[in-house]
Amino acid sequence: MLGYEQGIRNCNACSLSVQQANPSFDSSGDQDNGGQGTDVWDFRDAVFPTVLMDGLNYLRTSGLLCDVILITGNDEHPAQRVVLAAVSPYFRAMFSGTGTSHEFLESKQNKITLHDIDSAILGQILNFIYTAEIQITENNVGDFLVAADFLQINSLQNLCCQYLRSQMNASNCVGIYLSAKSRNCRELAVNAKRYALEHFRHVVQEEEFLQLPFSELKGILGSHLLNTTGEGELLETITKWVEHKPSERSQFLQSLVSEIDVWQVPAEKLLSFVNSEILLRRLRDSGFTSEQLQLNDAVVLGGDFKMAVDKILSQRCDSPCSKAQSHQVAHSKKIRHSYEQEVIVALGGESSGFVLNSMECYTLGYDGWRCSIPTAVALSGIPNPTQVMPPMRTQRIFPACCSADYTIFVIGGICGGKLIDSCEFYSVQSNEWISLASLPIGIHGSGAALPNQVLCVIGGRSDQGIEKRAWVYEERFNLWEALPPMQLHRVHHGVTSLNCLLYAVGGLGGKHTDEQFLSSVECYDPALQRWIPIAPMHEARAYCGVVTVGSFLYAIGGFNGISWLRSMERYNPLTNQWTLLTPMSVARSSFGTTVWNGRIYVIGGCDGIHLLNTVEKFNPRTNRWHCAQAMQVRRLGLGAATVKIPLKME
């Protein structure tokens, strides 16, 4: 248990030594001017990188100081090795042999031929490398994505993914999904597959749907989220897909039919399918004679299908099947839903001196926060069955927290002065907490995010002090691997992902053992495997909230060593600029932050005097804050996340 007076502010374990913001006075500087110290300015020229790149591009386009020529077809493209190697791991390995046990022949060649890349595409990519400008269209986005993946230019690949996400529709979502999956663009693949599931009735009408591989179609048919009129439509969809290439796809008929609930298929559609040419062809291919065809469809499609057909037709149709013996079998109805609704979850933290492991949630149809989560929500407001959310296995304050569609991850934290290394995740589908492999060290005040659907934990405070280390979770082996460390040590900072990049925002720390409040921001590029500093925020802040909405990153509230903050600012990665937005109505720090239905929610925390249970929400489109339902419990240092549950339209 933490003392109330200690816990009411920010983290007790982080004693704060506030340093004055730049310009700073260096008392150890030169003692000129009669023994008086000199002012030391830490200055950064934000225009200089642009001047540098403009100069390099001028040299390239003028053919000056170019030491390599890239050849595609009959065209030659002069460039500088050092520039190409700086942005592309592919070129870096080619020119320097980095990451390999030997040198490539190209490292000593002045002319290098690149196969399978169109000359015009390569020319535009080189222009992008030197100017950061490119024009993406429907006609060239596919070529750019392939080339960016091949050359490992992550920033261009991210731009292509953004473009495809903005242009996604029923006619192209399948192609986008397959392309994204083949190039390890996991976030885009997840978005495209979800779009296909939510618009399935329209997707199956498109020509692109017929190109789905068997394994992908089987996965879609097995999904509970599927916008369809019923199982009868799915049976017709299977028939349509198989008939597109019957000689190749008939072998998959049984496996695909097993993914639908044939007991819910209307009798007329069952009868039509049983008598269809596709089933007769499959039976003939299985070696049955014409006399055996009426008796052996169960061999091809399984006993459950045969029993369902006999039972349904005997009940609904005046057919020879009505004379057959009724098969009484146990059957569990398959429940599907066309849409999903988000649920906000607040968990852990400290309240009245006690460290918590409890959870509470809020969603559509609730008149307040509750400790039970619905199995589904309805637009009509009709109550649905609920289930009590189990507490976390470990009490935690200041844990790292992030979420995927149906899962909340909680990592580390502190309880009773003891650092926690354990990790666990909550599955909303099974309504249980499940343990993950522990971190290599106990840590609190760290941040977590899921760039490209991979769980990462960044910074925090351990027994050794403020960390700059980072870790990634390897799901296949249930263990944590080290990532390259940040440039600065950070604790109580914000962490989020945007366009497959990992961002560390503000916090408390510095280059070495410093403990100053930071306005600096850095992002991790997995392709380059290094942290890159970006534009700093307008205001230093720790204990803040950081989230991503659309193509922007938002930093909210916090504490700057002097006062609790109301301010909010937005980062645009395309311009590398922060913009101040409307501040919150109440200054707060150590709160939970999440996004629900496109709105940013700040939950609980403290205002410097009281622990809070109040909630505010921000609409990015209108730049306005609104009050929301308060939690049941006041919480400091809590985690907040958003998960999805079925939405019923009745």
TrEMBL record:
GO terms for biological process: proteasome-mediated ubiquitin-dependent protein catabolic process; protein ubiquitination. Gene3D superfamilies: 1.25.40.420, Kelch-type beta propeller, Potassium Channel Kv1.1, Chain A. Residues 66-138 form the BTB domain. Keywords: Actin-binding, Kelch repeat, Repeat, Ubl conjugation pathway. Pfam families: BACK, BTB, Kelch_1. Pathway: Protein modification; protein ubiquitination. It comes from the Eukaryota. GO terms for cellular component: Cul3-RING ubiquitin ligase complex; cytoplasm. GO terms for molecular function: actin binding; ubiquitin-like ligase-substrate adaptor activity. SUPFAM superfamilies: Kelch motif (SSF117281), POZ domain (SSF54695). The keyword Transmembrane helix does not apply. PROSITE patterns: BTB (PS50097). PANTHER family: KELCH PROTEIN, KELCH-LIKE PROTEIN 18. Probable substrate-specific adapter of an E3 ubiquitin-protein ligase complex which mediates the ubiquitination and subsequent proteasomal degradation of target proteins. May have a role in synapse differentiation and growth. This is Kelch-like protein diablo. It comes from Daphnia pulex (Water flea).
